[in-house]
Amino acid sequence: MKPPERVVRELALEWLAKADVDLSAGRALLSAADLFEVVAFHSQQAVEKSLKAFLAWHQVEFPKTHDIRRLLALCASIDSDLAETLAAAAELTPYGVAYRYPGEYPPVSKEAAEASLATAHTVLVEVAKHLPGKPGR
Description:
CATH topology: Four Helix Bundle (Hemerythrin (Met), subunit A)
CATH superfamily: Nucleotidyltransferases  domain 2
Structural class: mainly alpha
Number of strands: 0
Distance between the termini: 31 Å
CATH architecture: Up-down Bundle
Order of helices and strands: HHHHHH
Helix content: 55-70%
Shape: globular
């Protein structure tokens, strides 16, 4: 049987690895002009999973949600400075929710897709820095 600390660490690192895959997918899709919406979706997913890694590391239960603001509020209960630093990431929430389904919303520009990737990268790096023993990227 694994010690509880190891289980927590492994779970957090699994969340972070999933976030990294979403970030890589977004970067790979950026060159396709008709996939900016998908890039933004993967950026939102990378942020969401990074924050869930942080919460898992600190053993904070979180709901099944795509709401970045809600996850940041939970993170703030652990590290308010980190949550404040990453607050702009909440703007990516619609990409993980509304943009997944048919509806009326503005198209995602290349600039917006690039900005979403930059935000996701920042969140991943900052979260990784806050996990003991896990170096930043």
